[in-house]
Design goal:
four-stranded antiparallel beta sheet; alpha+beta; about 35% strand; about 300 residues
């Protein structure tokens, strides 16, 4: 017992130091160490999560687009268009015990910039189809234009009180909302619709001490986010700038009982795409840190 007491005492001290290290995201035990619970093996490393959010703005041409100038006096796009853009990005540590823990990426979202429309395509049965007779596309467009102007006249009559003298309050509001919905559905046949869709993808990066830049993925204004191997898009870069700041922790003397730890370096992590910075964060990274020997506390 006399010979095992110092070992047990060191193990208890090391266990206390291990608990303190576990609460500090800047310091981690390195290598194998003996504690009261047994042998602890630690190889600290940092894992980064890079979230990139992109947005697709898509314009869908209406089936009567080429007749918009003739019947409505406005020009409409004759072709479908889609444009992707990078909206935002973020970088954080991906670890269970880090105070900079990265949250889950945002769920995909879609916004249809039109009234009473939920899909990116037009319905097969046009809203101006009220008979079984087959009309040419131009005749259908002319009838749709007539309906638009008729709806506008009815709305003006309701507002001025020339029609529906007993329609007021919530009834008037409901009637005007329904007219606006119908008008919008007819206008979409000429002017088309716009759909805005956004999505977030997460990329995991494992930093290395000899690398300061990482190609997270690639981005194209035509196709959105692309794999790293697709050279048709611009690079989405993760740039790491270590501070290499000296550790202020007092190190153990040559004859003092000690424990080997790894102190993380506060490095600046930046996400860049096409020369523009989208995210910047200062995170503790073990790969650019220092290995130190910390003295175990003395017990009388």
């Amino acid at each position: 017992m006399k010979f095992r007491f110092p070992v047990l005492l060191c193990a208890l001290c090391l266990a206390g130091l291990t608990a303190a290290v576990a609460q500090n995201p800047y310091i981690a035990l390195l290598g194998a160490a003996e504690t009261a619970d047994g042998i602890v093996v630690s190889d600290p490393r940092s894992v980064l999560a890079v979230d990139v959010t992109v947005e697709c703005d898509r314009s869908v041409a209406g089936p009567y687009a080429r007749f918009a100038q003739k019947y409505l006096g406005v020009r409409a796009s004759l072709t479908d268009k889609a444009a992707w853009s990078v909206r935002s990005a973020s970088v954080a540590l991906l670890a269970d015990d880090a105070c900079y823990l990265s949250a889950d990426p945002a769920a995909p979202a879609r916004q249809v910039v039109a009234h009473n429309v939920a899909d990116e395509e037009f319905t097969r049965l046009q809203p101006d189809k009220v008979a079984m007779s087959v009309s040419s596309l131009e005749e259908a467009a002319r009838e749709a234009a007539k309906t638009i102007f008729s709806l506008r006249r009815h709305r003006l009559e309701l507002i001025t009180g020339e029609a529906g003298e007993n329609v007021f309050g919530e009834g008037l509001r409901a009637a005007l909302d329904e007219i606006a919905r119908l008008e919008q559905s007819y206008l979409e046949l000429f002017l088309g619709k716009r759909v805005v869709k956004s999505e977030t993808r997460r990329y995991v990066v494992y930093p290395q001490a000899d690398r300061m830049q990482y190609i997270v993925c690639r981005f194209s204004a035509v196709d959105g986010l692309l794999p790293e191997s697709d050279l048709s898009g611009d690079m989405v870069l993760l740039r790491i700038e270590p501070s290499y700041a000296a550790s202020a922790l007092p190190q153990a003397g040559p004859k003092e009982p000690n424990v080997v730890c790894r102190v993380a370096d506060l490095s600046t992590c930046t996400v860049i795409c096409a020369g523009r910075e989208y995210a910047r964060a200062v995170l503790p990274l073990y790969e650019f840190g220092r290995t130190v020997k910390l003295a175990l506390p003395h017990h009388k």
